[in-house]
């Protein structure tokens, strides 16, 4: 199974997910669970209200990271510093959840669910209420996050390069968008289609933060979790990919076999186009164009040039042929050398 990561991984290996599902037999399954409210501190120390469920058994009451309030159940597990997924559903004997990485993974998954529902009337990752599962404490000192094909995984970081990766809303939006992509265009995670896959995830990372964290809007990926001792940096800059060594024009396209053909590098080219389009017509039109292109026009093999055509067609559908929005798409791709 191919895992779509937030960051390049050393080498080019694909992880084969063990056939063992990690599902723990629910020893409470004779007992009904009901929705409950709790709270906990996130990775950056802020307190968040959490949707939990409550189960009472002969052994007592427990509150679990199962959000029953949305059109899809959102569940947050721990891999317990190993690599099994999903691992163990996180629970507490009180309504306080003392696990910052889990608090943010759970809360932000809800925010991203709400974004896709509010903006596009999409019910979860597959558009049909697919359960949203996340596993935190994946491996040890792990500086990455991923979409495994069925769920999200989040490392705790190493404390130097990053803190726990679920602390970034854009990171979680990025990973969930890999899931959305899988059920829509299903862009092959290699070369140009792979870089486009990465770019779509970065774009929705920006769009989701605009929706939910408007007062601290930015064009950066991962600024909240990256290098805790270094201020004002990030993993990537959508507005200026070259700031972190990524190309922003086809003249600088990187031909490599690393990182599935540089999917986290060459994403800078469509990222720059996304920045140019969005800064021209605004997030609220850009996100509609991007979503329509991803769900109606892009296919597994869409490359940068085809992406331009898909986005232009989506803009034509939404705003009319010859509209300023269509022109914005064409001008942006022309300026990054994609015709
Ligand atoms: Ca950001
Ligand atoms: Ca930093
Ligand atoms: Zn990714």
Sequence-ordered SSE layout with sheet pairings:
Blueprint: E1 4-5, E2 33-41, E3 47-57, E4 60-64, E5 66-67, E6 74-78, E7 88-89, E8 91-92, H1 100-120, E9 132-136, E10 145-147, E11 152-154, H2 169-183, H3 191-212, E12 220-221, E13 236-237, H4 259-262, H5 268-281, H6 283-297, H7 304-319, H8 324-335
Parallel strand pairs: 6-9, 9-11
Antiparallel strand pairs: 1-10, 2-3, 3-4, 4-8, 5-6, 6-7, 10-11, 12-13
The structure holds calcium ion (CA) (2 copies) and zinc ion.
The site of one calcium ion (CA) has 4 residues, from loops.
Task: Give a written overview of the molecule.
There is one protein chain. Strands 1, 5, 6, 7, 9, 10 and 11 form a seven-stranded mixed sheet that branches. With 339 residues, the protein is of the alpha+beta class. It has two domains: 180 residues, Elastase, domain 1, CATH 3.10.170.10; 145 residues, Neutral Protease Domain 2 (Neutral Protease, domain 2). The longest helix has 22 residues. Strand 2 and strand 3 form a beta hairpin. It contains eight helices and 13 strands. One calcium ion (CA) binds next to loops.
Task: Give a brief rundown of this model.
The protein has 339 residues and is α+β, with helices and mostly antiparallel strands.
